[in-house]
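#lab-general

N.A. 3:47 PM
ok so I finally got the sequence cleaned up, no stray characters, all 369 residues accounted for. can someone with queue access submit it? mine expired

B.Y. 3:52 PM
send it over

N.A. 3:53 PM
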Amino acid sequence: MKKVDERDTVFSRMRLCEGTNEYEDYYRRHADTEQADRKLRQMPRKAMFRQLRPGFESDPAPDSELAVQLIARGNMAMVRACIHTATNTDVSPRKLTFPPAEVTPFIKQVARHCGADLVGTIEMRDDHFYTHHGHETGKTYGEPVDRSLRYAVVLAVETDREMINRAPHTEQMLATTKGYADVAAVGAKLAVYLKSLGYGAFLNTVFGYNAPLVPLARDAGLGQIGRHGLLVTREYGPRVRLGAVMTDLPLLSDEPVDFGLGEFCKRCGKCAANCIGKAISPDQPESANGQPHWPFDPVACYTIWKRIGTDCGICLSSCPFSQPIAPELLDRIRTDPAAIDQILADHTARYGKRPYTKDKLPIAQLRAT
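B.Y. 4:20 PM
back already:
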């Protein structure tokens, strides 16, 4: 896997301010992206994430919209509280020792007890880590990433299907921010527990990344990477939020899984067809480490975020794996192309172009006077 610098992510780049040393240093090394980044940074943004995160300010929202957005704000405040708890808990001076073969399934059980829907463990390689911190971590920008905690418990929680199917409206944003809060709560509880056993622990979630989570979750056996660049799980499709707790407790590594997603995505293409930003490739994939890989344009994706005022999510709802699939068909995907055709035909017959619930939930129907 290619090593990734967090400073190269679109979120980190959008927080660079002209005239600062960080800005000058980055675009001295990446002059080819400066013009497009400046144009994107200067785009007006519809009301979204107002008061939620520094660097994501927008025009003032009406009271009715702000009342709903504040739910998302509370979700993200919960994430920060979980990180604070995980970070400020001391490691016990007494270290308990266990054989990795015995403690690994036990730690997975603890993670599920804490609320994880899916759990995998992995001994991390150097290329699993970011090389340097960007703006997303809360760490010093440009610092090399600490790689001393070499084992990871990778976590996933399901997000609400009905809310995701209202993408790209506010309900989708509420579902994803709740997912971030849920997985952070799981990770915080697990990190505190690992410290009580005498081991270091770092909570890796939306406000603090040491590693890109999608490839890490793939390598820990939680799912495969789809055409849209997201992790797709057999159980919930891409409707998951990911987190990880990194530790120095030795754990066994899970193996990557292959339930046939590569061939499925080649034949499907619904996320690309529905992507209003044309960020997802409709073409045949390239090959990366023997697996299909589709180019993804994060600038085109983020441009849509700014235009519509939410984090979109249309690709999440478009993926047939986000909706119920007959288990017998799921079992045949890897070996029977006819099963893929049947899933796609059933999906189109039921949902048309994509699942979409236009009617707002009562939570988003508030009217201010």
